[in-house]
Amino acid sequence: MHRIHFISGLPRSGSTLLSALLRQNPRFTAGMSGPVAGLLGTMLGEMSGRNEFSVFIDDEQRRRVLKGVVENFYADRDEAVIFDTSRAWCARMNVIAELFPQSKVIACVRHMPWVIDSIERLVQKNTFQPSSIFNYTVGGTVYTRADGVAKGDGMVGYAYNALKEAFFGAHASQLMLVQYETLVSDPGKAMAAIYDFIGEAAFQHDFEHIEFDAEAFDIKAGTPGLHTVRPKVGAVERRTVLPPDVFNRFENDAFWRNPELNIHGVPIV
């Protein structure tokens, strides 16, 4: 029987790098965001009152079906520990707690202005390829793009609100936050904390040789480089491409940096 954990959190905050590191351990399998969370959400909807046959479905049947979606998706994997990735998992903490009470959710976070900066940098880099992030639309400015990703159903806004829901919610005991800044500057510390959190024996990771290939997916999404991982872990100092007012707009959004707000004692590394 597999042990299942979940990777979630903010976009452009190290989840792909984390997956690339985790999969170095032969006991683990991990990857980029996949379809499982979406399948789970679809099944929840199909078994709801909008389906005229929902009167024949009780909660125990729903539980078995939903748990089966996750377990059967990975039934052919030989690895003992599964890490499934989706920004939606932070908004599904109640479902995870019911179906997999022993599972953990590792949420990747990053100082918010640099999340917006990273997205804008990708857009500016891929001059001739409109991105799926903005529904392949052409035009707009850094301001409209920042507004688009930051709104409640945007790429960043949704993930940010889901993260707050998980952090302040009833099932925060299953949650851990991994800061991008720590992951790239002190990966040994970050990985040791993760292993301790999920109750796995320590493993010697190679931070000098990282492999992850999602080039075909990124090209189809019109955003080459979206899941590119540098071959060596390390922090890169750079100037932002955002105008000062856009950068400053998100400067104070990293609530996890305020210890007084961590009312549930969520581990943060």
From TrEMBL:
GO terms for molecular function: transferase activity. It comes from the Bacteria. InterPro entries: P-loop_NTPase. The keyword Transferase applies. Keywords: Transferase. This is Sulfotransferase. It comes from Oleiagrimonas soli.
